[in-house]
Amino acid sequence: MSNLNQAGIIIRKAIMTDVVRMQSLINLHAGSGVMLPKSLNQLYENLRDFVVLEKDGEVIACGALHFFWEDLAEIRSLAVDPDHAKNGYGAKIVKNLIEQAKEFRIKRVFALTLVDKFFAKLDFTEVPHSELPQKVYKDCINCVKLGCCDEIAMVRDA
Prior knowledge:
By secondary structure, this protein is of the alpha+beta class.
């Protein structure tokens, strides 16, 4: 799935040689507390979930669509190189992932985020975590933030 959005910008499925760069982008943001870090192992195991955005051949953003149930998927690990922030690349990735969700007949997508205003601009609405029991029971139960989660649950129809 390659998507030429504008001159020099391509969104495509991630490949093995992207993983180190993806980890660098994600963990850079994790270091500032905006998202959870990812190990190389986590990224290799979930590589099929990821897309990357290339600008002039360089990976500058990534994001993943992770299926939770027959009608529910999560947008996760959305990271943009800070040198390319505020150019709409994060929104391009989210829109691409929503299109993928539609192709799989997923009815609803969600994100757990500290950047709720970004997702609100993309028609996501805040909901209580209790509306996402699949996420809570699968991932949150093992999270370092369990009991003190500061992430905001945001959902939208795909």
